[in-house]
Design goal:
18 helices, five-stranded mixed sheet, alpha+beta, rod-shaped, about 650 residues
Length: about 650
């Protein structure tokens, strides 16, 4: 029975005439109304209860939202404070100071045990270089860290990663994590403005962390600032490398100019020494002791000539000068040059193949390769040691099955060898293991380039503590073997006996600003019956050419002279005597302008200092050229050398 109906029945019972078994119609109607009221009341009661539940839920949700807003506000405030602190600590800092301030701020922001910033190079994907690290209240020395098997592997070139706990268990092979007793690891990659990975930042903790959202936001902001500074540092480093290259190029250019000037004068002196020694040999009576003295002077002068030739070749910036060469001669010249550059504690030895194939090479550039290898070998020997330069013939089977012959030059040292971790980089430009200021990192890179241009190759074998052998492989002309029977150049007196055509009857104009050389050639040629005229510069030479009524068979012409140089003389002289034959001589290397003149015909070039046999060969080569012209000269001068080529 409903509550309302029960109350109504009780009211009926108060009336004495009430009969519960026989209710009146009015009473029944009242009872039905009471039931309806009871039902309405119960429904309203349920609705109120439901409303109360919903109200309680809404209040709870509002309280939770309020708490979240308070947390969000606190996080935003912390984020703002972090950005402000980072800007305050690093705004005025750059370079290494920025790195240190950055990792310290990073560590304090996360209250971490260890924080670092590292540089990454895609060319060396197996490692990162930690540039700055902070932990336990102090900075740590930079170090190298492997990538594989560490959290770095999942961060570099990817995205922010947070390992909230048990990071050691995830990366058991990471010794650094074990040393730090790390539980939590947060890292972010760094990218340059082109999207290229250049490094990473990270913090490490011994306790787990929970606020992943805040950490991600902060790390994202930190990584942008760090990437910008790291890219700037890389740019400055590249700029400094370019400046160092420019400085080195300017220095080498200055050395080249200085070497050219010094060798010009030095070559003139050596030319006189060699020439007058030769004259003495031809005039003095046979005396074994005197001949030994004169031979010693000649050998020493030739050694000086070889040194100057090396300097000229090394400093020359012109196009490659390809010539057929027995590389044993180049090894001998290198031995002479390096003997003066090695300490007494280092022995230099050469072993030359007795039957060495010929090669067509630019001797100046190949000499540069040999010198660089010898210098590197010298620097690898700390105390006593030995350098061995050897030549070999070598035949290789190419990919198409054909055989090709090569000449191999080995430079072997007894130094410390090359560590395995740098072997793959030694031919890279600007890579050097030498201390700052002692190496440019261009030596081996230059050798690699030169050998590639020659169609050859450079390789090495090394063993730590025992030494290194570098091998230059140069294509040979053919498989024809030539014997290397070295002998001294014959004197002028001896040379004339071996040539059937003497100088008698030739008319020669000698134009040179060095008086000693003019006198030397004048005396030597007159002694053999030639007629000579002397001029100290181009202007005097032109006056002689205009005044004399003789047609000169040949002009011996120095290139570098005051007032009017050899090239200027040549151009004016050709207007006077178009068929004039000119033998240029100089202590400098050939210039581009001179090379063009030499291609025009009726000209030759001889490098000072020259031996008597060399200048005679050049004169004969020039006089024998263009047979019709020489035939006319032969009629005028019966004793002019024949036009038959030299065997």
């Amino acid at each position: 029975m409903s509550h309302f109906k029960d109350i109504l029945i009780q009211a009926f019972k108060l009336n004495k005439e009430f009969d519960e078994s026989a209710l009146s119609a009015e009473q029944k109607s009242l009872l039905e109304t009471a039931d309806k009221l009871q039902l309405d009341f119960e429904e309203k009661e349920k609705a109120v209860a439901t409303a109360n539940v919903k109200a309680a839920e809404a209040i709870l949700e509002l309280e939770e939202t309020r708490d979240k807003l308070q947390i969000k506000s606190a996080q935003q405030q912390l984020l703002n404070d972090t950005i402000t602190q980072m800007a305050k600590e690093t705004f005025l800092e750059t370079g290494g100071d920025f790195l240190n301030a950055f990792v310290e701020t990073l560590s304090k922001t996360f209250q971490s045990d260890f924080a670092f910033i590292a540089s990454y190079d895609e060319a060396e994907p197996d490692k990162i270089d930690v540039l700055s690290a902070y932990g336990d209240g102090h900075f740590h020395a930079p170090f190298e860290c492997v990538v594989q098997g560490t959290p770095c592997e999942t961060i570099i070139n990817q995205q922010i990663r947070i390992f909230q706990t048990n990071v050691q268990a995830i990366f058991p092979d990471s010794k650094k994590l074990c040393d730090l007793d790390a539980q939590n690891y947060c890292g972010a990659p760094l990218f340059d403005s082109q999207g290229k990975p250049i490094g990473m930042i990270a913090v490490v903790n011994t306790n787990a962390v929970n606020n992943v959202e805040l950490i991600t936001s902060v790390m994202d902001i930190f990584s942008l600032r760090a990437a910008g500074e790291l890219e700037r540092m890389h740019f400055l480093q590249e700029l400094k490398g370019l400046q160092d290259q420019l400085y080195q190029a300017q220095k080498m250019e200055s050395i080249g100019l200085l070497a050219g000037g010094v060798t010009h004068d030095f070559n003139n002196i050596l030319n006189c020494i060699l020439g007058y020694v030769s004259l003495m040999q031809s005039k003095l009576p046979k005396d074994e002791k005197l001949e030994r003295y004169l031979k010693t002077i000649t050998t020493s002068a030739k050694r000086g000539a070889s040194l100057t030739r090396q300097l000229l070749d090394y400093s020359r910036c012109s196009d490659p000068m390809i010539e057929k060469t027995n590389l044993n001669d180049l090894v001998e010249e290198t031995e002479l040059l390096m003997s003066a550059a090695l300490p007494k504690t280092i022995e230099l030895e050469t072993q030359k193949a007795t039957q060495l194939l010929l090669a067509e090479v630019d001797t100046g550039r190949l000499s540069q390769c040999l010198i660089n290898l010898c210098v590197n070998a010298r620097d690898s020997i700390t105390k006593e040691g030995k350098i061995l330069i050897s030549t070999h013939n070598q035949c290789k089977t190419l990919a198409d099955g054909k055989e090709q012959y090569f000449v191999r030059i080995d430079v072997e040292d007894t130094g410390g060898g090359i560590p395995e971790e740098v072997q793959s980089k030694i031919f890279d430009p600007y890579f050097t293991t030498k201390e700052k200021g002692l190496g440019t990192g261009l030596g081996l890179a230059t050798i690699k380039k030169i050998m590639s241009e020659m169609g050859g190759d450079v390789s090495f074998v090394t063993e730590l503590g025992k030494g290194t052998t570098f091998s230059l492989l140069i294509p040979a002309i053919s498989s024809n073997v030539t014997k290397n029977n070295a002998c001294d150049e014959p004197s002028l007196h001896q040379n004339l006996k071996t040539h059937p055509q003497p100088l008698s009857g030739l008319s020669i104009l000698i134009v040179d600003d060095e008086e000693l050389i003019r006198d030397l050639l004048d005396e030597a040629f007159k002694a053999e019956g030639a007629q000579t005229h002397l001029a100290q510069d181009g202007i005097e030479g032109l006056e002689i050419l205009k005044m004399t009524d003789k047609n000169f068979d040949i002009v011996i012409l120095d290139v570098i002279m005051p007032r009017l140089d050899g090239i200027g003389f040549f151009k004016k002289a050709k207007q006077i005597a178009p068929k004039l034959k000119v033998l240029f001589s100089s202590g400098y290397a050939e210039s581009d302008e001179l090379c063009l003149l030499l291609q025009s015909g009726q000209t030759e070039f001889i490098q000072k200092p020259y031996s008597e046999s060399e200048i005679i060969k050049k004169m004969q080569s020039l006089l024998n050229a263009n047979a019709p012209d020489n035939k006319a000269q032969t009629n005028e001068h019966p004793n002019t050398p024949s036009t038959q080529p030299e065997k």
